[in-house]
Structure formats: C-alpha cells, structure tokens
Amino acid sequence: MKPRTLLLSIALACFGLIGVAMYLQHVANLAPCPRCVIQRYAFLAVGIAALIGYFTNSIKIPGAVALLAAVGGLFAAGQHLYIIAHPSFGCGIDPVENFLNKLPTAHLMPFLFESYGACEHADMVLGMDIPQWSFLWFGLFTVALAWTLLRSRKT
C-alpha cells in the first residue's frame, strides 16, 4: 500500500472510531471518563494529521505529528488499562477531569469532549474492554505510521 493511501486509511479509521465513541456515549449511554476523552483527542489528532499528510506533497511532518499523537494515545490507553487493573488507584473526579472540562473544546462541543464517567468502569465491546480496543488501534496506527515515515525517507 502506498504511504499516502495508508494515511487516508488511518484518517478514516480514526474518524470512524470517533463515530463509534459517539454511538457508545449517546445511544448506548456509556459515560466517557477523562482517559476516554484524552483518547478522543488523540484519535482526532492522528486523523487530522494523517489527512493533512494525504493532501500535501510532503508526508514527513504530518506523519510525524500523527505518529506522536498515536504514541500519546497509546500511553493514555495504557494508563486507562492500568486503572482498570488497579481499581483502588481510581480516577473519577480528579484534576484531569476538571482540567479537561474547562478546555474550550469541552464548552464548544460537550457532546464529544465533556468527561463525566469513572475510569474504573470500562464496558466491553466484542469481548474486549473499550480501552483495550483503543490500545490495539493506537498500536496499529503507531506501527503503520512508523512504517510510512521510514518508507518515505527512502524515496
């Protein structure tokens, strides 16, 4: 697959995953926690950067930004999995939630960026916890973006 086509695929997957998050929140009534919202920001950053890389002649800078966002999302999903594995650690209403809910994006688009759930309570979809799915997707995006950047260096 060509690097630009891969970037478009990554962007579309990220936007699709945001759509799944919206469905789970607004139709299945699953409340997003602070780590979920951070992962949404990361998916959007990966998607937007990958889309910019697709539409520009140089994919190096947008690809690197997307890669950094994917690694950040991987870290956020990993934190979320740690919290689930150690419920006494907790998350709930914490400084991260307060910070996220005070961001302008939370006020402009609360349907997407407002946090009001507890991190310890992750629901399962198709046999895996939601943060496990996020971790898997961010891992795939990290590998694909690293491959894309390495391949673009050779050309």
UniProtKB/TrEMBL annotation:
Keywords attached to this entry: Cell inner membrane, Cell membrane, Chaperone, Disulfide bond, Electron transport, Membrane, Oxidoreductase, Redox-active center, Transmembrane, Transmembrane helix, Transport
Superkingdom of this protein's organism: Bacteria
Positions on the Cytoplasmic side per record topology: 1-6, 152-155
Membrane topology: Multi-pass membrane protein
GO molecular function annotation: electron transfer activity; protein-disulfide reductase activity
Main location: membrane
Transmembrane residue ranges: 40-57, 64-85, 133-150
Gene Ontology biological-process entries: protein folding
GO cellular component: plasma membrane
InterPro entries listed in its UniProt record: DiS_bond_form_DsbB/BdbC, Disulphide_bond_form_DsbB, DsbB, DsbB-like_sf
S-S bonds: 33-36
Keyword Metal-binding: no
Family label: Belongs to the DsbB family.
Protein's UniProt name: Disulfide bond formation protein B
